[in-house]
Specification:
The protein has about 200 residues and is mainly alpha-helical. The chain folds into 2 domains: about 15-30 and about 130-200, no CATH class; about 35-130, no CATH class. About 50% of the residues lie in helices and about 5% in strands. The strands form 2 sheets. The protein has a two-stranded antiparallel ribbon with strand order 1-2. Strands 3-4 form a two-stranded antiparallel ribbon. A hairpin with a 5-residue loop joins strand 3 (about 190) and strand 4. It starts with 15 loop residues before the first helix and ends with a strand.
């Protein structure tokens, strides 16, 4: 963390909960917002479906995988007593983020990229560490789209990306998770001398 030319750290431009709301709305505008607990359940559903797919079976295309993940996530949420309704929308958002993060692998062994052909592409596998990679992508998306994310925004980032509405999860643990995800973006995101994060190169 560095000081700016005037010796002061660049402040977040929107204070408190309004900053978190701004970040959530940014992710929603990109159609990739999901609540953390629901996201984790969809992650598990996608992983389990792909593990169960027989190698002799034609890989599920992304659109079918998304639908099946929504069904399985709804079942898992109900079994866990998790009162949540928007499984279809959440599954679409999570899989869209996974495409953006390039963690879904085609039968040819290449990452499936977002685009007009993505939904019709068969999914043969998933990258190791896909959860971390996808959440780091969400963080990078915010840095690129907002353009003014600073070191003062760690709490807002934690709330926007990781809050589970569970008071038993310490805020400090969530903020530690943010800095771990930021470290994964080294080379893609740089920290300027005024404390602002800047995305380097194309997304």
């Amino acid at each position: 963390m560095g000081d700016g030319p005037a010796g002061t750290l660049a402040p977040a431009k929107v204070p408190g909960s309004a900053r978190t709301s701004q970040m959530v709305n940014c992710l929603r505008a990109g159609l990739i917002y999901s609540e953390k607990r629901a996201r984790d359940i969809v992650f598990r559903a996608v992983e389990d479906i792909l593990k169960e797919t027989d190698s002799a079976r034609t890989p599920l295309i992304v659109s079918r995988l998304t639908r099946e993940a929504a069904v399985r996530a709804r079942q898992a949420g109900t079994a866990a007593g998790f009162a949540f309704k928007n499984w279809d929308m959440t599954a679409r958002a999570v899989v869209r983020a996974m495409l953006g993060a390039r963690v879904l692998i085609s039968a040819g062994g290449s990452a499936i990229a977002p685009g007009i052909a993505a939904q019709a592409t068969g999914v043969a596998g998933i990258r190791s560490g896909f959860r971390d990679i996808t959440e780091a992508y969400l963080l990078e998306f915010l840095i690129r789209r907002l353009g003014d994310v600073t070191v003062r925004d760690h709490t807002a980032l934690a709330h926007a990306l990781l809050r589970q509405f569970d008071p038993g999860v310490p805020r400090e643990d969530l903020e530690d998770r943010v800095v771990v995800l930021l470290a994964m973006l080294a080379g893609r995101v740089v920290l300027e001398s005024d404390g602002t994060y800047h995305a380097a190169g194309p997304s």
